[in-house]
């Protein structure tokens, strides 16, 4: 492991200080170092693995058991692909650092949108699939990494100019920041905080749906935080706006990065309303529908394994397992059953 680390950081002395660290600590320190040290990051890219994207769609491969995983190529393999397709080898330098594997190998992502999609798919034995669909196909732990990669690639593609001077911005080697070439203003990737809450009246939980959701799908209520709001204020405002209810007993459950529509930081909570104040007044400009669901209805939906066939949706269909909404709904059902 140490040998690998030394190669990754091109012999920098700090690698010896990692000898006493746990695997997790050394990985976090390695990523932090690579964000700050362009030379070390360039060296790590030569031995790293790369997740390929084409116009922000990740490259997936079907594995023998019929499931999908993101294609991860060694940087030498990516170089060979670029060479074979007649692309500039320097394109590899556009890779963005996304993390570090448990084997201490730096992980990057690269968008090859300027190459012919079908040609890359053929050489790499995979398919570029829209992230919304890929998110349902990826069952392993890689889904959050793929989402993070897409979010970073999108941020670079849309932040090429300084919003103060209009001049081009330049990225560092890892892609953790961009700097305005004229004013020196430093830009970092941004996320929008979103509160998501499962409201309960003690016996039932409140779920809503937007007209853009797949037929039959309901989720916990969510909304973007306004500037200056606390998490609790945003939560109370969103439930008041969308469902006409006043909540109390807010408790935090967990968070997640969510790549749609751009890059949101989802803060998942539970909250309660008094049964005598559970009369809904839904704002139909925000939600197509919102309803109270019983434990029986929610439990049946949680038992469903595969997406419903077209034309025959079940009465209630929930967000995918790796969505924080799913976690909130499952937690509520488990507490009710206890
Ligand atoms: N991961 C999950 O489990 C899960 C579940 C439900 C919703 N979500 C996500 O939560 C997000 C927010 O939910 P919502 O759509 O109900 O929000 P919302 O109720 O705040 O309504 C969306 C509207 O808010 C406004 N808005 C304010 N700030 C915005 C910003 N920074 N970016 C975009 N729009 C902004 C826009 O007018 C937009 O149309 C959605 O994008 C959705 O993808 C995630
Ligand atoms: Mg909303």
Automatic annotation (TrEMBL):
UniProt cofactor(s): Mg(2+)
Record-linked Pfam families: NUDIX (PF00293), NUDIX-like (PF09296), Zn_ribbon_NUD (PF09297)
Signal peptide, first to last residue: none
The enzyme's E.C. designation: 3.6.1.22
Gene Ontology MF terms in the entry: hydrolase activity; metal ion binding
Domain Nudix hydrolase: start-end pairs: 189-319
Chemical reaction(s) catalysed: NADPH + H2O = reduced beta-nicotinamide D-ribonucleotide + adenosine 2',5'-bisphosphate + 2 H(+); NAD(+) + H2O = beta-nicotinamide D-ribonucleotide + AMP + 2 H(+); NADH + H2O = reduced beta-nicotinamide D-ribonucleotide + AMP + 2 H(+)
Entry keywords, A to Z: Hydrolase, Magnesium, Metal-binding, NAD
Name of this protein: NAD(+) diphosphatase
The species this protein was found in: Myripristis murdjan (pinecone soldierfish)
Lineage of the species this protein comes from: Eukaryota, Metazoa, Chordata, Craniata, Vertebrata
């Amino acid at each position: 492991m140490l040998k690998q680390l030394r190669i990754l950081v091109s012999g920098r002395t700090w690698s010896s200080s990692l000898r006493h660290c746990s695997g997790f600590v050394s990985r976090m320190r390695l990523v932090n170092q690579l964000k700050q040290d362009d030379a070390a990051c360039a060296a790590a890219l030569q031995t790293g693995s790369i997740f390929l994207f084409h116009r922000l769609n990740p490259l997936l491969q079907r594995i023998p058991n019929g499931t999908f995983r993101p294609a991860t190529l060694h940087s030498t393999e990516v170089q060979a692909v670029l060479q074979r397709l007649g692309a500039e080898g320097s394109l590899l330098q556009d890779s963005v650092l996304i993390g570090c594997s448990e084997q201490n190998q730096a992980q990057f992502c690269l968008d090859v949108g300027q190459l012919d999609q079908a040609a890359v798919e053929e050489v790499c034995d995979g398919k570029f699939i829209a992230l919304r669909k890929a998110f349902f196909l990826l069952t392993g732990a890689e889904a959050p990494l793929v989402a993070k990669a897409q979010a970073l690639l999108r941020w670079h593609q849309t932040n090429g100019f300084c919003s103060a001077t209009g001049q081009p911005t330049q990225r560092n080697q890892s892609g953790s920041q961009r700097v305005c070439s004229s004013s020196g203003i430093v830009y970092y990737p941004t996320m929008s905080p979103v509160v998501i809450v499962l409201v309960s009246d003690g016996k039932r939980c409140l779920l809503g749906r937007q007209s853009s959701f797949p037929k039959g799908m309901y989720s916990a209520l969510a909304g973007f935080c306004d500037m200056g709001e606390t998490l609790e204020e945003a939560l109370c405002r969103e439930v008041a706006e969308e469902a006409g209810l006043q909540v109390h007993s807010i408790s935090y459950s967990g968070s997640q990065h969510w790549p749609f529509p751009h890059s949101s930081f989802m803060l998942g909570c539970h909250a309660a309303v008094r049964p005598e104040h559970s009369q809904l007044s839904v704002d139909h400009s925000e939600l197509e529908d919102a309803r109270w669901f019983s434990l029986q209805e929610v439990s049946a939906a949680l038992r469903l394994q595969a997406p419903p066939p077209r034309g025959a949706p079940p009465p209630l269909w929930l967000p995918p397992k790796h969505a924080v909404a799913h976690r909130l709904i499952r937690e509520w059902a488990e507490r009710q059953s206890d």
